[in-house]
Design brief:
- By secondary structure, the chain is of the alpha+beta class.
- It contains three helices and eight strands.
- The strands form two sheets. Strands 1, 2, 5 and 6 form a four-stranded mixed sheet that branches.
- A hairpin with a 4-residue loop joins strand 1 and strand 2.
- Helix 2 packs across helix 3.
Length: 147
């Protein structure tokens, strides 16, 4: 059927060059979050790519490239997380996800993930989720000699 489609983010890591090549096919842009030398936070939204897959025959896609360094976090999530709503039908949004990540940026990835999920649950209260909820948090680490 012509009305079937999906979103997709595909990536490939070159650890020696500290590069992430990716294609975003209509998905909510993943966030690459890093601590700046001054202690602040820098965010890169990985949106380069093209439209959703399967809806537009012959669509073309572009590859994006991002630099990553030791300690940077890649945070990818489904629209079910960013579009989760509270009792006032207001969406949680990507900015609240980023706020939760930034507040725990230096913590282990498992804890960052848990804090983001706690934030969305607190925001939604007793409102049921309307869509899937998927969250991936990955930290870049420098290679250790001999490993």
């Amino acid at each position: 059927a012509g009305n079937r489609y999906f979103t997709l983010v595909w990536g490939s890591v070159d650890p020696s060059g500290h590069r992430l090549r990716y294609v975003n096919a209509g998905h909510v842009p993943p966030l690459l979050v890093r601590r700046r030398p001054d202690g602040g936070i820098e965010v890169e939204r990985l949106g380069t790519g093209g439209p959703v897959v399967g809806l537009l025959p012959g669509a073309s896609f572009s590859a994006g490239e991002a630099r990553f360094g030791d300690g940077d976090l890649l945070v990818a999530f489904s629209d079910g997380l960013s579009e989760a709503t509270n009792a006032g039908d207001e969406e949680f949004g990507s900015e609240r996800i980023l706020d939760a990540v930034a507040a725990h940026l230096d913590r282990p990835t498992k804890e960052v993930l848990a804090r983001v999920l706690e934030s969305v649950r607190a925001y939604c209260g007793s409102e049921p989720l309307r869509d899937d909820l998927c969250l991936l948090v990955v930290r870049a680490r420098a290679a250790v000699a001999g490993s």
